[in-house]
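Try this one yourself first.
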């Protein structure tokens, strides 16, 4: 290479190096380039927009009765029931279809039973329908006792004209033994080809337990099976039990023409002061 070419190359290198030095000197903190993004970047995630029909992984059109007027949106895991309480859900019997509803006992009440009937013929043979939650009020023990008593309370939904599932079925009731509350459920499901093939509820079995209260502490006793409501056909599922220090306060129900699915709703046990007696 000729000396003139070498000098030209060296000159170019020095110019380029000077440019790099100038760039470095523009950022005395050496923190790297700073970018200013708009408050609402086009790729920003809207958390509210994520709570949609597909949050539970189900196809909103796969429900047994899902249609243009149905709302297949899941009601969410936990959340308050209007009074700031937070719930947990103990498993799913059946599947997500139809419309989800939070069939929660009124504040201060606990779940003590269910009512509903088995469809006796047709496509929905053996499936539960006309489903409702039975509630009760747990009362603090009388003087000298530690046993909590439970009085009949609300029914959810409150009227016979608005049950979960409207296919004709002869309703029956299943309740806990006296002065006990629901703490766990088992169930059975049968497959129906809507399509697609999907499991729906054919039976619910309740596990109930007594409560005691002493020195400001409520204790949940041992649970025993109270009985079952529905058909003996289908695949057994469960148990789905409430966690420590919680009992059932209702159910999250997925329904339309029949009871597609049910989840036990669990909350800290509510025990009310004893009513004044004349």
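Now uncover the answer:
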């Amino acid at each position: 290479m000729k000396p003139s070419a070498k000098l030209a190359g060296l000159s170019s290198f020095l110019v380029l190096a000077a440019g790099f030095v100038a760039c470095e000197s523009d950022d005395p903190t050496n923190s790297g380039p700073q970018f200013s993004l708009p408050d609402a970047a086009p790729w920003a995630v809207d958390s509210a927009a994520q709570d949609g029909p597909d949050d539970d992984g189900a196809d909103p059109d796969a429900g047994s009765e899902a249609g243009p007027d149905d709302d297949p949106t899941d009601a969410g895991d936990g959340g308050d029931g209007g009074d700031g309480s937070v719930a947990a859900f103990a498993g799913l019997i059946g599947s997500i279809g139809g419309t989800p509803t939070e069939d929660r006992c009124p504040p201060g009440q606990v779940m003590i039973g269910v009512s509903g009937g088995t469809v006796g013929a047709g496509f929905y043979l053996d499936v539960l329908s006309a489903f409702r939650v039975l509630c009760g009020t747990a009362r603090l023990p009388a003087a000298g006792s530690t046993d909590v008593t439970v009085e009949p309370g609300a029914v959810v939904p409150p009227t016979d004209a608005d049950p979960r599932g409207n296919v004709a079925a002869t309703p029956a009731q299943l309740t806990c033994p006296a002065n006990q509350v629901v703490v766990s459920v088992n169930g059975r499901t049968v497959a129906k080809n809507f399509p697609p093939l999907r499991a729906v509820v054919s039976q619910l079995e309740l596990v109930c337990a007594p409560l005691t209260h002493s020195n400001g502490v409520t204790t949940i006793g041992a649970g025993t099976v109270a009985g079952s409501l529905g058909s003996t056909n289908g695949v057994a599922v469960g148990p789905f039990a409430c966690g420590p220090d919680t009992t059932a306060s209702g159910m999250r129900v997925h329904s339309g023409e029949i009871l597609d699915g049910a989840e036990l709703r669990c909350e800290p046990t509510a025990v009310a002061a004893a009513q004044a007696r004349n």
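Discussion: The chain has two helices and 13 strands. The domain at 60-268 is CATH 2.100.10.30 (Vitelline Membrane Outer Layer Protein I, subunit A).
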